[in-house]
Amino acid sequence: MRNPWPLDRPSRIDRAAERRESTDLAACDAIVVRDGRVLTADGRLVELAPDAQPPASLRIYLGRDGDRDLVALVPEDPGFGTDPDGIGGERLRGLRDLLAGFWDRGAQGERDHELASTAVAIANWHASHPRCALCGEPTVPTSGGWVRRCDRDEREHYPRTDPAIIVAITDPVDRLLIAHAAAWSPRRFSHLAGYVEPGETFEQAVHREVAEESSLTLSSVEYLGSQPWPFPASVMVAFRAVTEDTEALDLDMDEVSEARFVTREELAELVASGEVILAPKGSVARRMLEDWFGGVLPEPRPDATIDV
Ligand SMILES: [Zn+2]
Question: pLDDT at position 4, please?
């Protein structure tokens, strides 16, 4: 089985923060990002040379890839890259839909995942923070797109990332808790998760969220890894935990409407039959599932009803 946690390594792209101010962004190769989507062909990021780039409303310095500088480009035209028949099969696709394809492509996919996650995260920040939070004046991008500056009071505003915890909970016989959020489409199950609140440690957020959503208490909490999750602005911080008292399970129906403990055999059958739909390959939630499962989870059988 492929190690589900290849994340303990440096970035594949050198962010080269010292080059953000000095690099001519219009002279760099660009990946294209807009509204949480990136320009791809066959699941790979498309990189456009300067003479092939559309007019840009914003360029953000992403870093060095070998001896090249790369930027993320937000096109002026809101319709750019949305026609699937246009520009040689290249089109904008949502990052969530690209995760499984990135995962299948090894180191090159990890590189694309890094670039796409960074581009989507910081473009989302620019789109949602056009004004100074203190005086309300429009701000302007500087420092290669990594700062927005208010000319009125000279304050600098920096990109934000909101941490969220996600936790794989097992019982004393190593069954896994799978949960369905009330807001999700039917049959979709995953782990419990929630935002870290100001003043909390990640571990305290794990205990609090699990208690709020399920009334379970945890006897051990162990860090697994993390993954950027720019939907729109998070990083998922993954843990595994054990509960001794499964009888305490009592759901907060507003957030989590269904949850149960399953054995490996039960989960494999639920997935194969299409009764349960899990997070996509390449997501942190899927890594946590397969870490517990001890291998790659089966695909739904061909006759399984997976449309919802
Ligand atoms: Zn201001």
Answer: 56
With cut-offs at 50, 70 and 90, classify the pLDDT of residue 84: low
159 Cα–ligand 1 center, Å:
16
Nearest-10 crossing angle of helices 284-293, 264-272: 130
- The domains found in the chain, sorted by start residue, are 17-127 (3.90.79), 129-160 (no CATH), 162-293 (3.90.79.10)
Amino acid identity of residue 155, one-letter, is R
* 135 CA → ligand 1 middle, Å: 4
145 Cα–ligand 1 center, Å? 18
Q: Give the distance (Å) from ligand 1 centre to CA of residue 251.
A: 44
Element spanning 111, H or E: helix 106-128
Portion of the chain with pLDDT greater than 70, in percent: 95
- Separation CA 28–CA 62 (nearest Å): 10
Which pLDDT value is given to residue 1?
A: 44
In angstroms, what CA-CA distances link 95 with 53, 92, 129, 260, 278? Answer: 21, 9, 21, 30, 17
How much is the average pLDDT of 55-72? 97
Distance 125 CA to ligand 1 centre (A): 17
Angstrom distance (rounded) from CA 269 to CA 97:
24
CA of 130 to the centre of ligand 1 (A): 11
Tell how far the Cα of 157 is from the centroid of ligand 1, in angstroms. 9
Report, as an integer, the average pLDDT of 264-275: 95
Ligand 1 centroid to Cα of residue 142, in Å, is 15
Q: Tokens 């002026």 appear where? A: 76
Q: How far is the CA of 129 from the centre of ligand 1 (A)?
A: 12
CA 81, CA 129: separation in Å to the nearest integer?
24
Question: How far away, in angstroms, is 18 Cα from ligand 1 center?
Answer: 26
What are the pLDDT digits (tens) for 86-121? 556 789 999 999 999 999 999 999 999 999 999 999
